[in-house]
Design goal:
Length: about 210
Amino acid sequence: MTGQRDRWADLTGGQAGEEYAQRFARLAESGHDIHGEAAFCAALLKPAARILDAGCGTGRIAIRLTELGHYCTGVDVDPSMLAVARRDAPTQEWLLGDLARLDALGLNPGFDLALAAGNVIPLLAPGTEPAVVRQLAAALRPGGLLVTGMGLDAAHLPLSEPSVTLAEFDHWCTQSGLTLRQRYATWSGDPYDEGCGYAVSVHSRPTT
């Protein structure tokens, strides 16, 4: 652990697991598609890929990707979120840990894709963002993908103001040896334009 309190913990007190799960259950019951992130990632991958769901929360995305035939490992720092994931998918791999110290978890590197959805990057502990990007990049195989989704304004964040700019994030990715491949405004693949309030980004690790 870094010892720094992440913004998510400041918002929730680390007790949001059941409430978060119930929110998405209500959305699903009302007819909303709650699997946009999983569908986006699955379209980038061949079957049976190794996926790291970084900041996996209650496991919604990792569980769906496993249903689609992939092998997923979920990591989160919030025990209340992981408790829901372990209850709903007890045979999957769920790890409690700080993304800034991902290497301390003993994971085998070589993931085909690392995912940080759900505003994971903006909700990290202040100052740890570059380290987290480095850790995620290091977990990828050559040619592997880092897929992220993040709000860029208060309307798309559970924060009063954005904590990370897209330019900062791209800089951290470049420092970690990653190259931007694609960027969208939604998980449905809508085009990204400057000034959009949300960005879905696909960065890749070089093949050599």
